[in-house]
Amino acid sequence: MDASSSPFQRVAIVGVGLIGGSWGLALKRHGFVVRIVGCDRPEVLDRALELGAIDEAQPDLAEAVRDAGLVILAAPVAAILEQLPQIRRAAAPRAVVTDTGSTKRAILAKARPIFGKEPLFLGAHPLAGKERSGIENATASLFEGARYVVTPLAPSDLDDERAAAWLVIVRTIGASPFVTDAETHDRALAFLSHLPQLVSTGLASLIADEARCRSLPLELAATGFRDMTRLAESPYPVWRDICLTNGDNLLPAIEALIRKLEALKAQLGQDGLKQEFDEAHELRERWRKTKGP
Q1: Which of 162, 180, 198 is the last residue of a domain?
Q2: What pTM, to 2 d.p., does this model score?
Q3: 133 and 74 co-located in one domain
Q4: Cβ-based burial of 147 (10 A; exposed 0-12, middle 13-18, buried ≥19)
Q5: For the chain (length 293 residues), average pLDDT per consecutive 10?
């Protein structure tokens, strides 16, 4: 599929940051669309134009999505929730509207009563973020090798030819679609993404406290510190929305981690600690196998 055969001759990207900007750059690289319009703050749009992620800047949401064949909502979750009713009113009947929100239940619950088949709403979440957000960190290769979670309002929505055309684009930019329901997604991501973020943030905050209170030379920090605290650079507004919309899954994940840390604490200097290391090594190997060749 190329620009001449794509049903998405005009694409609107609402939120031209890391994910939205990367979508624009990836679409450009693969020649799928004739024109990409971005909707965001004026200063963000200016930078997106400079980087070539969009062709047109339109700060007005309704005008940005009007006549677009594909609408990508790439703002934080709270903003997406606010935008959905206006998107429904302004989008063309044959458009595909998809989001990139990091939690799915709240978005699908808001979309379900207002969207039908015209336009078609496809919930989604690319597992391809970075710790640093913003259009400056966008790249055309962001989605290569990544899972792209798809959570449709109804399984039959994926039989629609518009959904099939969108999935072709997802695969061509290098991602692998993974279809699941919003409940499974949110619970899994609480453990696999949201908990690691809070661990990284908590560890960096703890070390900041220790460095203030007593001598703790950061010059002694090496790769372990670097790797474990990489996510601590992530932006708070994005994670605020995630915690607010997935707190019921995240709380038991945190409690489970506390129990695990207490178990590790009790096993310091004992043979039981080896079993924890063995299980951790096995899990890492299983995860590597899910990544494919």
Answers
A1: 180
A2: 0.89
A3: yes
A4: middle
A5: 70 96 95 88 96 95 95 96 96 96 97 94 93 89 96 96 95 96 97 96 92 84 93 91 96 97 90 89 90 59
